[in-house]
Each structure stands twice: as C-alpha cells, then as structure tokens.
Amino acid sequence: HTGNRKQPPVAQANLNVCAVIRVRTPRKLNTFISPEFEDHGRLISNQTTGTDTDMATSSPCVVISDDEQGYDLDLFCIPKHYADDLDRVYIPHGLILDRTERLAREIMKEMGGHHIVALCVLKGGYKFFADLLDYIKALNRNSDRSIPMTVDFIRLKSYCNDQSTGEIKVIGGDDLSSLTGKNVLVVEDIIDTGKTMKTLLELLKQYKPKMVKVASLLVKRTPRSIGYRPDFVGFEVPDKFVVGYALDYNEYFRDLNHICVISESGKEKYKA
Which of 28, 155, 191, 217 is most buried, judging by how many CB atoms fall within 10 Å of its CB? Predict the structure, then answer.
C-alpha cells in the first residue's frame, strides 16, 4: 500500500501515457455496427446511378465514421522508410485480425455446407486472403462440421496513383474454367467504385460457377460508387486513400501491417 506516497517522475510519466491511451482508444474510434447490409453482391439503389435492386439483411460490418482521425504513428511500430509518408494509423493490425476472424465464422455459417473454391484477387487481397483462410482452417480443425477448400488466384489492375482509372485489366491468373459448377468465394482487399468487382463477376459468370460470394476487407463510401456491395465486409471506410496490409500505392506500402492514411508528401514521393 503506497498511501499518498509521491510517484517517481519516470513512473508518473508512464502512468500518464497509459491513462491517455486507455481513454483515447474507445473515444476516438468512431465506429458503429451497420444494422443492415445489401444482398449478395448486387447493385443497390444509389442516388448517383439510379440503379435498383432488392434489399435484404446480410452480414453487418464495422462502419468507420467520416470524422474518425485514426491514431498517432508514434503509438505503433511503423517501418522507418515509411515514417514520413503517412498521416495516421487508421485501422490497427490487431483490429483487422479480430474482424477477419469473425468474417471467417460468418462465411462458414453461410457457405459451410459446400466445397469452396477461394479466389484471391491479387495483389492487394493476398494478406486478407491468407489470414481469412487461416481462420477458416482453424474452424475446420475445431468443429464437427468442416468443408474442403481449394484456392485459385486472379490479378486485376485498375489504379494509377490514387485514382481508379475505370479501365479494368486482367493481367494474371490461372485457367478459370476450373470454377465451372463450383461454389466460389472471391476475396478482395477493397471495393472503391465497385466497377472492378462488377467486371470480375461478369467474367466469372462466363465460366458458370454454381454460386459466387464476395468477401472484401474494406468498402469505401464514395460518390463515385456504382452501388455495388459484397456479401461479407470487414470495414466500411470514408473516401480516403488508405495503404498497408497489402493495399498499395504504386506497389509501395504492401509491407506495412496496419492500414494507414497516406500523406500528400507520400503520394508525391511514390507517384508513378
């Protein structure tokens, strides 16, 4: 028992830092759970496009509000070569993993009665894909109900610098005829305008899969959206250009664990 004993200066300083972090984390992460989500990767009603479709309740997601500022870089381990190229940490790595674990459970609940072909959209989706499959494999090992799963890969390109070009190029991937008659889970890093995924789904349709579901780690709120929503979503984020956890800016930042907001100087430094 210390009573009113005065803390040494260093110990007192450490206590103050910890207190700030404990208060700041729940206060500053301005998120809420979306109570309803759009159905099965269709085009939803959208003010900018006028497109319509049926609405249905599906997997909820974590919605990060427009005024969320993220976290100071000094609170996390950031590679030195990126220290001057980022504004803030937006979604910490641990939170990404926790959310991915829950998505794995939701996917197994909905698709767990079928052999799944997991199709990774490269390059940005590879980290999310690997972690998601690890959690699904863990569920398979520790449950009375398990499913076989095989993997395939496809590579698309639609970005130059921080803008989607609107032109979708398939620049790599295996023979997709193996998807015919299969239950396919497409795993993507981020849905921005939705044009890339819409184009990919039209391509996959040519191979006549039995079922296609889409899981995306991020969905961006943007007026450029055509209204596309995937079946499983980790986080809905504001219209900011984010990097890290395999999301890149002209191939840089894929080696960053956290999802961060890139700085203007970073954009200029790595501009194509």
Answer: 217
